[in-house]
Design goal:
Blueprint: E1 2-7, E2 10-15, H1 22-35, E3 44-45, H2 48-55, H3 59-71, E4 75-77, E5 83-85, H4 91-97
Antiparallel strand pairs: 1-2, 3-5, 4-5
Length: 98
């Protein structure tokens, strides 16, 4: 079954019957959104618990995806638990290209 959910400008497409692990699918969706400018630098991502509930996956799956993207420099976690886009076009650049 294919699922696509949106939450706070995050578009994540999951294919539960695919051979690709769910955390990798989440990583790819977020990485592609950042590269395409749909998630500009400074954008906040939903908390891992919220995104996990929205997608119907365990929080650990989302945490693993967020951690990998942070290790690659795409995301930054801040005190208080929120996660922001750390790479890609700035908000002003992304708005002007829309």
């Amino acid at each position: 079954m294919d699922k696509t959910r949106t939450n706070s400008s995050v578009l994540v497409a999951l294919q539960r019957d695919a051979r690709i692990p769910l955390h990798r699918q989440i990583e790819t969706s977020i990485r592609d959104a950042i590269r395409a400018g749909r998630l500009p630098r400074g954008s906040s991502l939903p908390p891992s618990r919220v995104l996990a509930a929205d997608l119907g996956v365990s929080r650990g799956v989302v945490v693993e995806a967020y951690q990998q993207l942070a290790a690659e420099g795409y995301l930054a976690s801040h005190t208080g638990g929120y996660t922001q886009v750390a790479a890609g076009p700035s908000r002003a650049t992304a708005r002007n290209s829309s």
